[in-house]
Design goal:
The protein is mostly beta strands. Keywords: Disulfide bond.
């Protein structure tokens, strides 16, 4: 390559270069959509090099990239110079904004002059506050104006484009100001440099807006790494695009916006109701205007449950004068097989009746303890109010020495899941439980139950337990804990006897049979009822043999056997056998 051509590309070819994920900021004029950039060179002396500030269409061009220095100066990435003016001296720069790069001490002294310190006004204009001039683009260049700095012609926003998988860099305000995020959209911006709706991935942008607003709003800078930790694949499957962040800079960082909610509660039960959060000492209903199936599914998962089979989106209404919080509320998976929720909510009070999301999650297909009529009483030792251990209640809080909770299921069950939580206030829970159980009060079988790691998420232990009626639960850790519990499964029935054999004599018979031996096949059989020709003959305790007397010789009889368990449930199937007494 000829040397002159190489120098030309080195010096001027950069003007054609567009950053892929610019990792710096640009200043975008709200009215025209154009950006401030380094333009044609004005002068090049021993002291300094100067360039006109011009307005360009492509905000991602390297000439339009800037960063704030600690000295409150805005530095142009391409030239290394900073935005400057001679507004107070009316020199040859015609009261226009330009870029100045100081080469020696004299040039750097002018470059670092406080007259060039720039911040943004509340109205959105770029303001040289030491000399009280604001910036206003004309047809090609950028003028300085003394008056009218609140006009729409002076409005600018700061912007940046960050490639997925990279970290934001130089996305910040002046050292005197704080970021107010206007939008943070995900889309294909590098190809065109335009930020119109057709370039935006609307599904992913719902999460990027929440993440950037909640994590960077009110900060001096934003240094997020935009990867799968913040933008998981269920919302952002296409990792080839960029995040466009648009913001303004304000003097105060104070804000009432809610960006964290350590206590999230559904109003009806742990898995059903309106979403409420605790904002300081105030409980607020969440009004998420973009609520959808995926958001409900992820919130259910965050709380330790699943979405319902119907997977419908429901809503309800609340009246005026209720405390609410409106905005973004999005839960998502993290890389550590956990979940997190992004929150950016504005607190307010309802002026009138409004509709808000009503969430329905699922504990399991067959919850047992939610039937208050069937299981009216819990018992135990330590504290009282054992019935509060239901999911629909506030939680049973233990006290004293070795407290425990007793549950009588009234009949035997096949238990498939044990779900536990702390109290409704999310202040106390246990990390591990010991559960003993049996079909009698012997509690001879044991099962370890995984407890909770926090106050908001239910913990599910998958089990395969049969013949469970009486349950005793104790914490394996602290004795100061609170517990809410749900069991999943279905009632077991006694199965019929098998292989009936009869040895008959003239007036009596010896009857034997086999009992079901598998716990999965039958509840525990405690009694058998013997019928003779359809009439109850006797009821005996658990056995495999009985003698029957009082028969007539050489006569046909039918023996029927019905099994019963400790809950007086009878087998649906009746085992029977015909025989004839001897002649």
């Amino acid at each position: 390559m000829p040397w002159l051509l190489y120098r030309w590309l080195l010096l001027y070819g950069l003007t054609l270069f567009v950053f892929k994920g610019c990792q710096s900021l640009f200043l975008r004029h709200t009215q025209s959509g154009k950006c401030i950039a380094a333009g044609s060179q004005i002068s090049n002396s021993n002291n300094a090099r100067s360039y006109w500030v011009e307005m360009v269409n492509n905000c991602l061009n390297v000439s339009a990239q800037f960063r704030y220095l600690d000295t409150e100066l805005l530095q142009n990435i391409k030239t290394g110079g900073t935005l400057a003016s001679n507004a107070t001296k009316k020199m040859k720069f015609l009261n226009r904004l330009f870029i100045h790069y100081g080469k020696n001490e004299q040039g750097k002294k002018f470059q670092n002059n406080s007259d060039h310190h720039l911040k943004q006004t509340d109205a959105g204009s770029l303001f040289l506050y030491e000399v009280k001039f604001c910036v206003q683009p004309n047809r090609s260049y950028v003028d300085l104006k003394k008056d009218g700095c609140g006009d729409v012609e002076q409005n600018f926003t700061f912007g940046s484009v960050t490639q997925y998988g990279t970290k934001m860099k130089d996305v910040h305000c002046s050292p005197k100001q704080y970021m107010m995020i206007k939008r943070a959209d995900y889309g294909d911006f590098n190809k065109t440099g335009f930020f119109s709706d057709e370039n935006i991935d609307t599904t992913c942008s719902k999460l990027t807006n929440c993440q950037v607003k909640s994590r960077c709003g009110g900060n001096r800078s934003c240094e997020l790494t935009m990867d799968n930790n913040l933008l998981p694949s269920e919302y952002c499957p296409d990792t080839s695009k960029e995040i466009y962040t648009e913001y303004t800079c304000v003097d105060s960082s104070s804000s009432t916006i809610i960006t964290a909610a350590p206590i999230i509660v559904l109003t009806g039960s742990p898995y059903r109701g309106y979403i409420t959060i605790k904002d300081g000492s105030t409980w607020r209903y969440v009004n998420e205007e973009n609520w959808d199936i995926n958001r409900e599914k992820m919130l259910c998962q965050h709380l330790g449950f699943k979405e319902t089979d119907a997977n419908d989106i429901c809503s309800g209404s609340i009246l005026s004068n209720y405390n609410i919080a409106t905005g973004h509320f999005i839960c998502y998976n993290t890389q550590l097989s956990g979940t997190s929720c992004c929150i950016h909510l504005v607190p307010s009070t309802t002026p009138s009746r409004i509709s808000i999301p009503y969430v329905e999650c699922k504990v399991c297909d067959k919850p047992i303890l939610n039937n208050v009529t069937t299981f009216p009483v819990f018992s135990g030792s330590g504290s009282s109010n054992y019935r509060n251990a239901r999911f629909s209640a506030s939680g049973w809080c233990a006290s004293g020495f070795t407290p425990y909770l007793l549950i009588d299921l009234q009949k035997e069950y096949h238990i498939t899941r044990v779900v536990v939580m702390g109290n409704r206030g999310q202040t106390k829970w246990s990390g591990s439980y010991s559960m003993t159980y049996s079909h009698t009060r012997s509690y001879e079988n044991s099962q370890k139950i995984t407890g909770n790691k926090n106050g908001y998420r239910a913990s599910t232990t998958h089990v395969d337990l049969f013949n469970v009626r009486f349950i005793k639960i104790q914490s394996s850790e602290s004795q100061e804990f609170c517990l809410r519990i749900e069991l999943c499964g279905e009632a077991q029935m006694p199965a019929a006897v098998q292989d009936i054999k009869i040895q008959a004599s003239y007036t009596s018979a010896s009857v034997t049979w086999k009992l079901p031996t598998s716990a999965s096949a039958s509840s525990y059989i405690t009694h058998l009822v013997i019928y003779l020709n359809g009439t109850e003959k006797k009821r005996i305790f658990r056995s495999t043999q009985t003698d029957i007397k009082g028969f007539t010789p050489y006569t046909w009889y039918r023996v029927e056997i019905v099994t019963q368990d400790g809950s007086s449930q009878s087998s649906n199937k009746v085992a029977s056998e015909m025989f004839r007494t001897k002649k």
